[in-house]
Design a protein that fits this description.
Layout: E1 3-7, H1 12-23, E2 29-34, E3 48-52, H2 58-72, E4 78-81, H3 88-96, H4 102-123, E5 132-136, H5 149-169, E6 175-181, H6 187-196, H7 199-214, H8 223-234, E7 245-248
Helix pairs in contact: 1-8, 2-4, 3-6, 4-5, 6-7
The chain binds nicotinamide-adenine-dinucleotide.
Length: 260
């Protein structure tokens, strides 16, 4: 029996990752660590097990990982460090000024970068050769942005740490990669779109405007797009791939507006 630990797997991209890992039979069971658990869809519910945990808190992560390894076995096969993003109040405070408060900056870095270290530090030493780790970075970590400076800096840190970790764990036969998702309409974007202009009523329209202005393929990305890429990176089919950052962004990181 193979199993994966997926942080932030209760909804959004994490749920896309959980669904794809099971659908493509990369693992048989999934342990989700999430601070706000939700029931998995009926079709996969029997194979998805929720463990309450806050990825920014070492004691909370350790307790969840201990419970998971007791239940599913001492050696996790796959780790997906996906929990991250931000909260509406953080997005709104960043919108008002280019300077985040130091407290908000720390929260972004804690949730998006330090969490990856905290969870990996607990899980990776338990993994064996053939194991795979995939971190959810962001195109924000590859591009400059006048908004979301702390988020972008933290995701750039995830990209750097992914490469270092791939070097550190390579000799143990454990691969480490990251995905850099583009624009996916999850809860994060509902909050971000609202903060960027027009409130809740305009959130989806703001999102669509950004998609039209920035995506060469002129389509938004989906949970399924990200899940399938993560699933491939964690599977045997990617057995010779490590230290890579795969953008799933419809071409945004080509750096040119569509059609120009
Ligand atoms: N949505 C996008 O367009 C987009 C783009 C690029 C990258 N990302 C990244 O994808 C990842 C998932 O984002 P999403 O859009 O699915 O967001 P989401 O808010 O829909 O889901 C995030 C999940 O993580 C959980 N979570 C949040 N903080 C946590 C904590 N401290 N401990 C444990 N669980 C926690 C939430 O409860 C939730 O289930 C994040 O790392 C985000 O930065 C998202």
């Amino acid at each position: 029996m193979k199993y994966a630990i997926v942080t932030g797997g209760a909804r959004g991209l994490g749920l896309g990752i959980v669904t794809a890992l099971l659908d493509e039979k990369v693992v048989d069971e999934i342990a989700v660590i999430d601070k706000d658990l939700a029931p998995a869809p009926a079709a996969i519910a029997a194979k998805v097990h929720g463990f309450q945990g806050d990825v920014t808190d070492e004691a909370s992560v350790h307790a969840a990982v201990e419970s998971i390894t007791k239940r599913f076995g001492a050696h996790p096969d796959v780790l997906c460090n996906n929990a991250g993003g931000g909260e509406r109040a953080w997005f709104e405070s960043g919108r008002r000024t280019q300077w985040d408060s130091v407290e908000t900056w720390r929260k972004y870095v804690d949730l998006n970068l330090n969490s990856v270290y905290i969870v990996t530090r607990d899980v990776a030493p338990r993994m064996r050769a053939g194991g795979a780790i995939c971190n959810t970075a962001s195109i924000a970590g590859l591009l400059a942005t006048p908004f979301l400076a702390a988020y972008a800096a933290a995701k750039a840190g995830v990209i750097s740490y992914t490469k270092t970790l791939a070097l550190q764990l390579g000799p143990s036969g454990i691969r480490v990669n990251a995905v850099a998702p583009g624009l996916i309409y999850t809860r994060v974007w509902e909050n971000l779109g609202a903060a960027m202009g027009g409130g809740d009523a305009q959130a989806r329209a703001t999102f669509e405007a950004v998609v039209n202005q920035t995506v060469p393929l002129r389509r938004e990305q989906t949970m399924d797009d990200i899940g399938r890429a993560v699933s491939w990176l964690c599977s045997e089919r990617a057995r010779n791939v490590t230290g890579q950052i795969v953008s799933i962004d419809g071409g945004i990181t080509l750096g040119r507006p569509p059609g120009e």
